[in-house]
Amino acid sequence: MMIWKANVPQRIQIFLWLLVRNKLLTRDNLLKRQHVADTTCLFCNEAESVNHLLFYCVVARELWREIFSPIGSNIELNSHGLLDWWARNDNKTADIMLHATALWTL
Ligand SMILES: [Zn+2]
After folding, report:
1. Which residues form the Reverse transcriptase zinc-binding domain (predicted)?
2. Which of 10, 16, 57, 70 measures 20 to 30 Å from 93, CA to CA?
3. Does 30 map to a domain?
4. CA angle at 72 for the pair 15 and 7, rounded to the nearest 5°
């Protein structure tokens, strides 16, 4: 899997692995384990999920627009779309590092 080849710290590799498996502790996933009083996104008040927080939220969309607009990519913005893009761009390790950093920051 591309994640394990990415030239990023191991904790970010694990973070990315949890992301593609939808196991990050976003509020929707926390709710499966415990009571969560507020399940909305801190940025926009929509329901918080992995794909919302990291791809669909207005804040995430703006970040991805800034990242992808210089390269003109029409990537489908969700965890699977990003993973597919990485697989198709095997030699672009700098881009993978950039995306991983953006995801970690969000
Ligand atoms: Zn949001």
Report:
1. 2-64
2. 57
3. yes
4. 30
Ligand 1 midpoint to CA 94 (Å): 27
Helix axes 93-105, 58-68, angle to 10 degrees: 160
pLDDT in tens, 46-74: 999 999 999 999 999 998 888 877 766 66
pLDDT of residue 8: 87
How far apart are the CA of 92 and the centre of ligand 1, in A?
A: 29
Using the mean position of ligand 1's atoms as its centre, give its distance from the Cα of residue 39 in Å: 11
Domain count, the chain: 1
Q: Which domain covers residue 78, as residue numbers?
A: 9-105
